[in-house]
Amino acid sequence: MKVLDCESIESTYKSLEAILGVKKSRLCQLFDSINVYEEMHESTSDFLFSYIRDETDCKTDFDKTCWFHCTRTRPDNTFVEGLLPLKEIIPKIWDFLFDLSEGQLTHQQWADLKRFIDSSQYHYAHLYRMKWADAKVHGGPHALLIREAAIDAAKSSTYWNYFEIPEIVDDICYCCVDKYGIDLTHKFITSTVPCIVKFIDYKANIGALRTAMIYAYLKHRNLDLLPDSNSCFSAEGVPVPKDKILNVEFLSNSEIKTVRKDIKDINSGVSVNIILEIESTTQNDQ
Question: Over 179-229, what HEC string results?
């Protein structure tokens, strides 16, 4: 059984050796022999993949792919129901956020907020409805192939930081500020921890194999990870069952030190930037 597992650079090389039938030392020789960024081509990962295949006549078939779902959740979440798509998890999100309001809002006001989001032209209400309407595109669960690249992306201002706050939660929190002047963002962040859920997909993804190669290439040459050094997974609105989950990892401060969140200053009505320390400890899957 051949599995592509890019949890670390070591596991990536181990997977590549098993799948390609090519030793790490040979791969490194080939990585040294070519600069993929000096060549004229559309995709560096496709170019490198073709080069390795031509030079080694390697195999490319494998059986399973490991993926990493990045999120922020309660520290006691063991994902007993698996990873749920948006339409199944959203009622739980609404209940959790209402509990965080701690009496600031009545049940009637919370129901009115839902109606506001369903009909308002407010930007974040529109974003919420857009995600809800297209379950195949936005329903998830989503995941990334390269764990290290997912961590790096979270530290960049270029990409959405799912370790900080899920997009749909962000939409609800902004709408709550707009309608009631109550911001739940800080309470959400301080009540949750960044988390990576590793699961396995019983399919071979040739695009993921190309990505694993470019990841190994960049690491070998001490180059920064680039956008094409990761691949994305979408379950398209179908749950990832519990028996496919391999590990639940709660991140520590040594990996994600701070998060940034632009929120609306309730008094002045302007956008301000705050930095919040994530206080979390590494925990094992229960």
Answer: HHCCCCHHHHHHCCEEEEEEEEECCCCHHHHHHHHHHHHHHHCCCCCCHHH
Q: How far apart are CA 1 and CA 200, in angstroms?
A: 13
The whole-angstrom separation of Cα 261 and Cα 76 is 24
Question: Would the pLDDT of 16 be above 70?
Answer: yes
Phi, psi of 6 (to 5 degrees): -110, 40
Q: Write the DSSP string, 95-151.
A: HHHHHHTTTSS-HHHHHHHHHHHHH---HHHHHHHHHHH-HHHHS--EEES-HHHHH
How far is the C-alpha of 129 from the C-alpha of 114, rounded, in Å? Answer: 11
Its pTM stands at 0.86
CB distance 65 to 240 below 8 Å: no
Token digits of residue 137: 């595109």
By the 8 A CB rule, do 212 and 4 touch?
A: yes
160 pLDDT above the threshold of 80: no
Task: Yes or no: say if 60 and 209 are a contact pair by the CB < 8 Å rule.
Answer: yes
Nearest by Cα to 196 from 230, 168, 162: 162
Three-point CA angle 103, 113, 75, nearest 5°: 55
Q: Tell me the C-alpha distance between 69 and 149, whole Å.
A: 12
Backbone phi and psi for residue 215, each to the nearest 5 degrees, phi listed first:
-60, -50
- The alpha carbon of 165 is separated from its chain's Cα centroid by a whole number of angstroms, namely 11
Please, is 24 exposed, middle or buried when counting C-beta atoms within 10 Å of its C-beta (0-12, 13-18, 19+)? Answer: middle
Closest CA to 23 of 231, 216, 233: 216
Residue with tokens 């009540």: 191
Rounded (to 5) percent helix, strand, coil in the chain? 45, 15, 40
Give 93-140 pLDDT, tens digit per residue: 999 999 999 999 999 999 999 999 999 999 999 999 998 888 777 888
